Amino acid sequence: MNIRLSFAPLSQTPVDLLCVVLDEGKALHAIDDAAVAAHVARAEAGFKDKSLKREYFATLPEGAAAKAVVVYWSPQIKAFNLWENLKTFTAKALRLARDYRMATVGLALNTIEAAPLVGKAVEGALLGAYTFDRYKQEKDDFLAKQASFVILAHPERQADAEARRGRYAWVSENVNFARDLMNEPGNVINPVTLAEAADRAAKEVGLESEILDARALEAKGYRGLLQVGAGSRTEPRMAILRHVPAQKGGPTLALVGKGITFDTGGISLKPGDHMWEMKGDMGGAAAVLGAMRAIGRLKPNLKVIGILCCAENFPDANAQRPGDIFTAKNGKSIMVDNTDAEGRLVLTDGLHRAGEEGATHVIDLATLTGAVLRALGPSVAGMMGNDPELLRRVSRSGSNHGEAYWELPLVDEYCESLKTPFADLNNIAAGGLAGAITAGLFLREFVPEGVKWAHLDIAGPMFREKDWKYYETGAIGFGVKTLVDLVERFHEPLA
For residue range 176-207, what is the model confidence (pLDDT) as tens digits? Predict the structure, then answer.
């Protein structure tokens, strides 16, 4: 979809459909066309006296700057802030234009107050127009190939608007890149093809890249990936991507992603209902890859390492069994009580590799536990860690972009439930309670000494079963926006 900015008045920017968003606290539009202004005023009155419950839509007479206008009222959606609502309304307007085949859609953000929202509109357009239909015979590619989205912006904010458009368009492209990876079926994305995608992305944006195959993993002692991947005919991989800034020194941030490209549960087989969704169990790795691809072109002044732990968890004669014991890279032995608690096993390798890369800060992302979904639902990710400031930075970055996190405690008392008489650690807690927290406690045992660490359990917002905000059903690429914002603002003080 073509997205452009116009700094001319509406009367000089004819569109097929004009979108206007009304807010109680901010004036976002300046309209110099009398016919359009009259409809907007009528809509505002209807919203305020509650005679209007949804959007206001009207066609306009010939000679007006727009053929039709749609007006939305931000206070109607009380769960989210103005910019999240703006993204949602942008997506709705584009889908309306698709349904009525209106090729040019305009959004009025041409006041000084609206200037900071230009990037959010770009994000709403690109994420809202996304669809995964490559395997469908009948496609509707109207938005992708025929539609044009015009943001009416204030003429005194031209440079700022252009910068916001560029930044948000690139980051949104990478959110959609991560969504594509997650939406692809397991017969397309496997550990090898995911690592290959990482290598291609690194070359595309100028990142350093290193791919470890099964032989290299064995030689280096990365047993977690080998254990989990033993039952699959596709060998595991570890992909390491590096952004090295021109300015040397300073902290190094490692982003470690769980990349289980399909999770059957292994010998501890999952129920068949909705098992197909386990193609998205590489959501952490997809988010890390999307973020690293964005970072490669944004070039922040921070060394960032992306580590993708890629494996497929299948049952066969070679698969690991419940009761198997192996020694992780840091020397701690692990008994595999349940083969469906596999994500934490591959992350032990990623966390150790982060230490070998010299990381001072580590964030791991994983669709790790059903327990976090039961605790926080599908809209909020759980987070834990050993550094309050890093957790606050994650939360701030998520809040900047509509990705919500809630801190769960690492309750030391619960470490007892990870004990076994046969090894240093059991891979799952006895009793089955506090599953998200005990998974975090397990991972903490493998964080390199002295490293500041945050664990993000994104199992809740991995997929949406129906359209939500500006996302369509399916993967939403959760975490990409948070990670990019975190890297961009890493040196900024916390308020």
Answer: 999 999 999 999 999 999 999 999 999 999 99
CB atoms < 10 A from the CB of 444, how many?
Answer: 17
Q: Locate 324 and state its tokens.
A: 């198997």
Q: Is-contact 472 131, C-beta < 8 A?
A: yes
What residues does 109 pair with on adjacent strands?
A: 153
Distance from the first to the final alpha carbon of the chain? 37
Q: Hey, is 256 helix, strand or coil?
A: strand
Between β-strands 404-407 and 380-385, what pairing exists: parallel, antiparallel or unpaired? parallel
User: What number of other Cβ atoms are within 10 A of residue 431's Cβ?
Assistant: 10
Question: 218 has which bridge partners?
Answer: none
What does the mean pLDDT of the chain come to? 97
Active-site residue identified among 95, 220, 270, 444: 270
Contacts of 276 (CB under 8 A, 6+ apart): none
> Band of the pLDDT at 244, cuts 50, 70, 90?
very high
More confident residue, 495 or 188: 188
Which residue, chain included where needed, has tokens 């040397």?
A: 248
Give the span between the Cα atoms of 376 and 270, in whole angstroms.
22
Q: Which amino acid is at 278?
A: M
Q: Tell me the three state secondary structure of residue 312.
A: strand
For residue 270, indicate whether it is catalytic: yes
Taking residues 403-415, report their average pLDDT: 98
Q: Catalytic residue at 466? A: no
Q: Say which residue the tokens 């992306």 belong to.
A: 306
pLDDT digits (tens, 9 = 90+) for 386-406: 999 999 999 999 999 999 999
> Which domains can be identified in the chain, with CATH numbers?
2-174 (3.40.220.10), 187-488 (3.40.630.10)
Q: Residue 495: pLDDT above 90?
A: no
Find the catalytic residue in 179, 242, 258, 344.
344
What tens digit of pLDDT does each residue of 300-351 get?
999 999 999 999 999 999 999 999 999 999 999 999 999 999 999 999 999 9
H/E/C letters for each residue in 150-207? EEEECHHHHHHHHHHHHHHHHHHHHHHHHHHHHHCCCCCCCHHHHHHHHHHHHHHHCC
For residue 109, give the 3-state DSSP assignment: strand
Helical (H) or strand (E) element with 420: none
Q: Helices 283-298 and 480-488 sit at what angle, rounded to 10 degrees?
A: 40
